[in-house]
């Protein structure tokens, strides 16, 4: 069995073409990059605002919990059915899919950023204020750098959510590596199903490790020293 | 399809809810039973903690649909076997709870443990009567997060043909009707809410001192 999965993965014919592994991997990465970028643009400033001012914490917690309980598959299919008649092009499936990916990544990014900034010792912030820092300077030079570990853990769980949901989105005809699982399921081709699953696993773990590395690069050396 | 589809199919929805309940509750409970000893081990042995938390962290990274279809190749089940879902969710549950339990046990202040020893408790008694109970509040919150997210992850199994509330979503897609989807979303939210409240209530019963102190 493992031999047949390996054979599927290493057959050059499976990598080529408009629905080959290379193309679907590209789609998966493209959807992930777009969704994460949009979710960051919306979620990060909101998280900074909530963390800095302390306003809206309860609303945020409620939203994050509701988002966790909402089944992504149901949300995805519901939006496709509602939006497909409105959008008259082949974007009819892609747009709702991307929308759901963004929607799911926003709550972890907001709550990671807000709690990263909220958890900083008030004394540190007061010290910066006492030294004459403006509020903007406090946010940029103190709060965001000190909050990096939790900010990144929020971004990483948002990323995980996107990669995972982009896989499921193959069900509503979205491209991406999930295609191999669902198309293989339809034709009862287990090597293809498992091969697709292996690729998704490698992609997810690879992205996770990449972001763990980025986090280390983004953390100020002073903070790394303190933790050790 | 009209809204009357829902009242006419309450029996079917109820059956799907029961399957969904099993597929959620079973891995949550098995995961808890595995995570308590593993978390305890991790709390006392920092090297082991790195391996356990790191290893399960990697497994947690695997997207659910991929894990559902990889397991048959690893444990030799059929692809439609619900056991795959139970095993996958058990892995996710252990991954989340191990860290919570280890951190919870370590967060009990040393003076509290010294007081317990001073009152004549042996190591075993001190663990079961003092340290573990004091680690319960974070464990209960962790368990609530786990059960709610498990309700949601189970639905993904509908795409490969395992029947539970998620089947209402795929039915809605094939019939181009949002009525079963709305019914499925509603049933999932209610199930998640009920299980969350259940665990919160059990947790309050188990930790009466939390309210007394507050």
Class computed from helices, strands and strand pairing of chain B: mainly alpha
Q: CATH homologous superfamily of chain A?
A: MetI-like
Order of helices and strands of chain B: HHHHHHHHHHH
Give the percentage of residues in beta strands of chain A: under 5%
At CATH level 2, the architecture of chain A is Orthogonal Bundle
Q: In the CATH hierarchy, what is the architecture of chain B at level 2?
A: Orthogonal Bundle
**What gap, in angstroms, lies between the N and C termini of chain A?**
45 Å
Q: Note the gap between the termini of chain B.
A: 52 Å
- Total of domains of chain B: 1
Overall mean pLDDT of chain B? 94
**Topology, number of strands of chain B:** 0
Largest beta-sheet characterization of chain A: none
Give start-end ranges of low-pLDDT stretches of chain B. Answer: none
Shape of chain B: elongated
Kindly state the number of beta strands of chain A.
0
Order of helices and strands of chain A: HHHHHHHHHHH
Helix content of chain A: over 70%
Radius of gyration of chain A: 21 Å
Identify the biggest protein-protein contact and residues per side.
A-B, 39 and 43 residues
The count of helical stretches of chain B stands at 11
Structural class by sheet pairing and helices of chain A: mainly alpha
Keyword list:
heterodimer, A: 228 residues, mainly alpha, MetI-like fold, 11 helices, 82% helix, 0% strand, elongated, B: 214 residues, 81% helix
Describe the secondary structure blueprint for this structure:
The complex is a heterodimer of chains A (228) and B (214).
Chain A: H1 2-10, H2 12-15, H3 21-53, H4 57-69, H5 72-83, H6 91-118, H7 122-130, H8 135-168, H9 178-186, H10 190-218, H11 221-227
Helix pairs in contact in A: 1-10, 3-6, 3-8, 4-6, 5-6, 6-8, 7-8, 8-10, 9-10
Chain B: H1 5-8, H2 10-44, H3 46-61, H4 64-75, H5 83-106, H6 110-118, H7 123-134, H8 136-154, H9 166-174, H10 179-206, H11 208-213
Helix pairs in contact in B: 2-3, 2-5, 2-8, 3-5, 4-5, 5-8, 6-7, 8-10, 9-10
């Amino acid at each position: 069995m493992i031999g047949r999965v390996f054979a599927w993965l290493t057959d050059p014919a499976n990598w080529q073409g408009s629905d080959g592994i290379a193309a679907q991997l590209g789609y998966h990465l493209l959807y992930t990059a777009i969704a994460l970028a949009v979710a960051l643009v919306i979620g990060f400033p909101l998280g900074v605002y909530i963390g800095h001012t302390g306003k809206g914490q309860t609303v945020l917690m409620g939203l994050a919990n509701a988002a966790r309980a909402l089944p992504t598959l149901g949300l995805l299919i519901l939006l496709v059915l509602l939006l497909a008649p409105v959008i008259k092009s082949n974007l009819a499936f892609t747009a709702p899919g991307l929308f759901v990916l963004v929607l799911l990544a926003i709550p972890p990014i907001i709550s990671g950023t807000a709690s990263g900034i909220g958890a900083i010792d008030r004394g540190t912030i007061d010290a910066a204020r006492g030294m004459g820092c403006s509020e903007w300077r406090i946010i940029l030079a103190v709060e965001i750098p000190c909050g990096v570990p939790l900010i990144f853990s929020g971004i990483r769980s948002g990323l995980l959510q996107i990669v995972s949901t982009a896989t499921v989105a193959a069900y509503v005809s979205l491209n991406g590596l999930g295609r191999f699982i669902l198309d293989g399921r339809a034709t009862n081709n287990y090597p293809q199903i498992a091969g697709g699953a292996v690729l998704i696993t490698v992609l997810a773990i690879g992205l996770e490790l990449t972001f763990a590395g980025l986090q280390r690069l983004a953390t100020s050396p002073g903070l790394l020293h303190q933790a050790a | 399809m009209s809204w009357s589809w829902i009242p006419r199919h309450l029996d079917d929805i109820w059956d799907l809810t029961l399957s969904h309940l099993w597929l959620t509750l079973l891995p949550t409970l098995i995961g808890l039973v595995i995570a308590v000893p593993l978390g305890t081990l991790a709390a006392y042995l920092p090297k082991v903690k790195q391996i356990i938390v790191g290893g399960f962290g990697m497994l947690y990274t695997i997207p659910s649909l991929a894990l559902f279809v990889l397991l048959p190749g690893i444990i030799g089940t059929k692809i439609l076997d619900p056991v795959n879902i139970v095993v996958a969710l058990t892995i996710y549950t252990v991954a989340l709870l191990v860290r919570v339990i280890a951190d919870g046990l370590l967060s009990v202040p040393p003076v509290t443990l010294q007081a317990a020893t001073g009152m004549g408790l042996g190591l075993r008694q001190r663990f079961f009567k003092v340290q573990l109970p004091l680690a319960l509040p974070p464990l209960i919150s962790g368990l609530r997060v786990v059960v709610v997210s498990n309700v949601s992850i189970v639905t993904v199994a509908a795409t490969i043909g395992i029947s539970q509330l998620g089947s209402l979503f795929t039915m809605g897609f094939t019939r181009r009707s949002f009525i079963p989807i709305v019914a499925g979303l509603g049933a999932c939210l209610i199930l998640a809410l009920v299980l969350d409240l259940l665990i919160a209530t059990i947790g309050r019963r188990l930790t009466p001192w939390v309210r007394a102190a507050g």
